[in-house]
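Budget justification aside, the reviewers requested a transparent look at the raw inputs and outputs of the sequence design task funded under Objective 1. We therefore reproduce one unedited record. The lines immediately below are the structure tokens for a 360-residue chain.
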């Protein structure tokens, strides 16, 4: 499938101005995307759980201009406060998507956005933020082209989100979303995310994700810098092949509900992501001492109780604890007694895997 399919071509002219609001969630990868080619094409396929509580709500106000602008005219507000420092990132996004949504130059914008999680929590808002904005832009397209089907709408919104932040293209639908071509998973594409199409065992319904905020600081390494470290990385090809294999294995795991194998794949993926950063040039250690303390506590807890608590990591020090809903009570008791002490100011966020974005 080619990018050209996503170029807006309707000749219809409309005088629309108005506003739309979308709420879009964050996601946590089980098989990680790490390394990309030009135009945000992933070096390997990935899969993520959609997180229903960590989300961004964005309202886009649009006003038709007398003549289309050369640049993009917009102001952005986070929780009511004007944020000019967000402008370069949004301008880059709009520039990247303009060839697919040429009508965006016909309007000026006010973007009002807010997150359900604290801005300074160390939780990346790019997946939820970029997907919420892409959905708002697609709402304008829908006004210009009412014949757009729901499927076309979501697919193009995911395609645009990818151009903002790769992992954002996995945030539009629930509960499990794949991105990147995989030979065994029907419909997968490097250009947009798709809902995982096969059978998923009851064990994975309402899966729990508790995010332990170990370090609320700014990201030590930006995603762009991180992905670029995979160019000429000595282990790159093996890593990309491993991601394909892990996704193949997960197909069976999702079907049978085998939690032990799930844990093995998910923890190995998290540690591999960090191993890639430790073995690149320049190299980085993104875990903090408390990240390691938590990992050891989880392994001891699992040994002792036989419960299915595991961890995954993003490109940072915070720890995502993943566990099945039916083990929630004992695991939350363990988090509150043992793990909370490793979190900065004792902060953690409870989330549940679930539905995707919705229009408000
Ligand atoms: O979407 P980006 O470019 O910020 O990259 C995110 C990469 C990881 O979060 C580390 C892994 C993933 O697949 O989400």
């Amino acid at each position: 499938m080619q990018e050209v399919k996503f170029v807006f071509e309707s000749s219809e002219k409309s005088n629309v101005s108005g506003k739309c609001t979308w709420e879009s969630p964050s996601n946590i990868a089980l098989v990680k995307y790490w390394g990309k080619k030009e135009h945000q094409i992933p070096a390997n396929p990935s899969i993520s759980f959609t997180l229903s509580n960590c989300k961004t709500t964005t309202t886009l106000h649009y006003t038709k201009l007398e003549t289309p602008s050369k640049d993009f005219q917009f102001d952005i507000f986070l929780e009511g406060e004007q944020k000019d420092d967000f402008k370069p990132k949004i301008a880059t996004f709009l520039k990247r998507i303009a060839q697919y949504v040429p009508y965006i130059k016909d309007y000026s914008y006010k973007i009002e956005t807010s997150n359900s999680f604290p801005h300074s929590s160390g939780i990346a808002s790019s997946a939820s933020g970029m997907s919420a904005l892409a959905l708002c832009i697609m709402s304008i397209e829908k006004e210009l082209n009412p014949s757009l089907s729901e499927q076309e709408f979501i697919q193009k919104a995911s395609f645009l989100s990818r151009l903002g932040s790769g992992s954002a293209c996995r945030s539009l639908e629930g509960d499990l979303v794949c991105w990147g071509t995989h030979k065994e998973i029907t419909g997968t594409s490097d250009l947009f995310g798709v809902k995982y199409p096969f059978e998923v065992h009851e064990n994975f319904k309402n899966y729990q994700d508790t995010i332990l905020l170990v370090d609320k600081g700014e990201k030590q390494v930006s995603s762009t810098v991180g992905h670029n470290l995979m160019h000429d990385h000595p282990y790159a090809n093996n890593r990309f092949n491993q991601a394909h294999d892990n996704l193949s294995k997960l197909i069976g795991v999702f079907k049978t509900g085998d939690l032990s194998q799930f844990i093995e794949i998910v923890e190995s993926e998290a540690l591999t992501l960090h191993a890639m950063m430790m073995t690149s040039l320049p190299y980085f250690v993104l875990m903090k001492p408390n990240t390691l303390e938590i990992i050891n506590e989880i392994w001891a807890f699992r040994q002792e109780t036989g419960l299915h608590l595991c961890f995954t990591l993003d490109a940072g020090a915070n720890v995502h604890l993943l566990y099945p809903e039916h083990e929630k009570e004992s695991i939350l008791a363990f988090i509150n007694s043992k793990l909370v002490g490793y979190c900065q100011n004792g902060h953690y966020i409870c989330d549940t895997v679930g539905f995707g974005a919705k229009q408000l």
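The chain has eight helices and 14 strands. The CA atoms of residues 4 and 100 lie 8 Å apart. Computational costs for records of this kind are itemized in the attached budget.
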